[in-house]
Design goal:
Blueprint lengths: L31 H23 L6 H8 L3 H7 L3 H26 L5 H17 L2 H9 L6 H23 L10 H23 L7 H21 L1
Helix pairs in contact: 1-2, 1-4, 1-6, 4-5, 4-7, 5-9, 6-8, 7-8, 8-9
């Protein structure tokens, strides 16, 4: 007589599924990703202040971390080097400037070019000069840091030149499309005027107002326009 096989005991212990949601630990109302993003913001704010106040070359990673109340490990979680931190900061500021002038162009699209020109230049100046640290970081510190930073600067100039060329062509579809070199030269001249405005503040001269910079840049572009119309 064969022995009947007894049924194997059933393990009724619940096994967590891979799809079971895991509660994320929150500290001060923030989860890990939110805390990481907050540390990155703190580091960039600290870098803005220190680069503007004491220059890129005289600022160390340790100083940025101390100013941001973030540990050195937290810095390297986001940036490989001080140069990478600066490049990220330059990209962030540049994006803000581009969004502001582009929005102004949309808002004044139905106006004539002299009106749009004045509004766009004013938007650009206020984007960099309402907080003087931004002008210093973008125009006073970027030169000669590294090839990567120079590539970012060139990208910013190219975007600005393409933007200016588009404004020149608006409403003039028959205008010569070979305007990019002139637009690049015009943007380069504008950026040099901004750099000179910054250095005039630093060398002990009487500080020029934001309105003075706006007037100088508007006049410069108007002169270029006058010459362009005669070609």
């Amino acid at each position: 007589m064969s022995r009947s096989k007894s049924a194997a005991p059933t393990d009724r212990t619940a096994v967590p599924s891979d799809r079971t949601p895991v509660a994320r630990r929150r500290i001060r109302g923030l989860d890990a990703d939110e805390r990481s993003a907050q540390r990155r913001r703190q580091l960039l704010i600290a870098a803005t202040d220190l680069f503007a106040r004491q220059s890129y070359s005289l600022t160390s990673i340790e100083q940025i971390c101390q100013h941001a109340y973030v540990g050195t490990k937290g810095f390297y979680d986001h940036f490989d080097s001080k140069e990478a931190c600066y490049t990220a900061l330059l990209e962030q500021i540049s994006t803000g400037i581009q969004q502001r002038v582009a929005q102004t162009a949309v808002e004044t699209a139905d106006a004539d070019w002299p009106t749009r020109r004045a509004a766009i230049v004013a938007a650009f100046v206020h984007a960099i000069a309402d907080d003087p640290r931004l002008a210093k970081v973008t125009f006073g510190e970027a030169g000669g840091i590294s090839p990567a930073v120079e590539a970012q600067r060139r990208s910013n100039r190219r975007w600005s030149a393409e933007f200016l060329k588009h404004q020149w062509l608006q409403g003039n579809p028959d205008t010569d499309r070979t305007l990019l070199p002139l637009a690049l030269a015009t943007i380069g001249g504008m950026f040099e005027l901004v750099a000179d405005w910054l250095h005039h503040h630093d060398d002990g001269g009487a500080p020029d107002s934001v309105e003075t910079l706006t007037a100088d840049l508007t006049h410069f572009v108007a002169v270029v326009d006058a010459g362009r119309s005669r070609v």
